[in-house]
């Protein structure tokens, strides 16, 4: 089972000027249209319904990234399921791979309480941690 990461833990990486998304950590937002409500800075959007098709591409591109964090709105279904799919494909790729493959050391986690929890935590207190926030769409959710 994938482990969870709190918003405060993930925010440390996002705030750190010495860490770069896609290099030092990767945030994969698996929401669909609800992605356009707002998102975490540096997150990439891969809708959950595309994860089986795109996981291999993500693994190839980000295999050296030490930490991958998945999330959806609440991280109850789409986020954990996408993390599981990604992890299964990683395991397949590691069969027969060299022990030094950086993919073997990659951690895969799920953002606890998803984007809703993130936005509730940081929207007012630290608005720079919520990009492209759309209040009207948020209120309509």
Report on the architecture of this protein:
This protein has one domain: Rhodanese-like domain (Oxidized Rhodanese, domain 1, 3-Layer(aba) Sandwich), CATH 3.40.250.10. The protein contains five helices and five strands; from the N terminus they run E-H-E-E-H-E-H-E-H-H. It has helices at residues 7-15, 51-62, 78-94, 114-122, 135-140, and strands spanning 3-5, 26-29, 44-45, 67-71, 107-111. The protein has a five-stranded parallel beta sheet with strand order 1-5-4-2-3. Strand 4 (67-71), helix 3 (78-94) and strand 5 (107-111) form a beta-alpha-beta unit. It starts with a strand and ends with a helix. The mean pLDDT is 95. It comes from Coemansia javaensis. Residues 21-127 form the Rhodanese domain. One of its GO terms (molecular function) is protein tyrosine phosphatase activity. Keywords: Hydrolase.
């Amino acid at each position: 089972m994938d482990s969870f990461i709190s918003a405060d833990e993930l925010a440390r990486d996002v705030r750190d000027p010495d860490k770069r998304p896609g290099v030092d950590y990767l945030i994969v937002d698996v929401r669909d249209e609800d992605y356009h409500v707002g998102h975490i800075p540096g997150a990439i959007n891969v809708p959950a319904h595309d994860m089986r098709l795109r996981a291999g591409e993500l693994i190839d591109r980000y295999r050296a990234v030490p930490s991958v964090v998945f999330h959806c709105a609440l991280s109850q279904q789409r986020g954990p399921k996408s993390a599981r799919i990604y992890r299964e494909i990683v395991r397949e790729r590691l069969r027969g791979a060299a022990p030094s493959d950086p993919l073997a050391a990659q951690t895969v986690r799920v953002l606890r309480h998803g984007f809703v929890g993130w936005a509730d935590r940081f929207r007012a207190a630290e608005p720079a941690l919520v990009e492209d926030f759309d209040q009207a769409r948020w209120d309509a959710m």
